[in-house]
């Protein structure tokens, strides 16, 4: 399987790609709640529903928890080495 890496500082994820991750994982799973930008914007003090979080992520992809990893239909947001190892084992690698 081919691996492609994208430097999101140079090319942020496209809204359609973010929507795919949101559909698979939910918007809250993509929100980087430990990031500097999250803190600076005071987002911890807001009550946002799933749609509002998704809108924020699409408007400002710098709020996305990295790395975003996709393997076929599987996806993860943030470091999740156990899941990546499991995916590879399931695919016989």
Describe the fold and architecture:
The protein has 93 residues and is mainly alpha-helical. The chain has a single domain, classed as Glutaredoxin (3-Layer(aba) Sandwich), CATH 3.40.30. Helix content is 43%, strand content 9%. Helix 1 runs antiparallel to helix 4 (50-59). The model has no long low-confidence stretch (mean pLDDT 90).
Based on DSSP secondary structure assignment, what is the total number of beta strands? Answer: 2
Amount of helix: 40-55%
Distance between the termini: 10 Å
Please name the CATH topology: Glutaredoxin
Number of domains: 1
Low-confidence spans: none
Strand-and-helix sequence, N→C?
A: HHHHEEH
- Strand arrangement within the widest β-sheet reads 1-2
CATH class: Alpha Beta
Specify the biggest β-sheet.
2 strands, antiparallel
Radius of gyration: 14 Å
Q: What structural category arises from helix and sheet content? A: mainly alpha
* Overall average pLDDT: 90
Task: Summarize the topology.
Layout: H1 15-25, H2 27-30, H3 36-40, H4 50-59, E1 68-71, E2 74-77, H5 81-90
Antiparallel strand pairs: 1-2
Helix pairs in contact: 1-4
In short:
This protein has 93 residues and is mainly α. It contains 5 helices and 2 strands. The longest helix has 11 residues, at 15-25.
Q: Which short descriptors sum up this protein?
A:
two-stranded antiparallel sheet; single chain; 5 helices; mainly alpha; Glutaredoxin; 2 strands; 43% helix; 93 residues
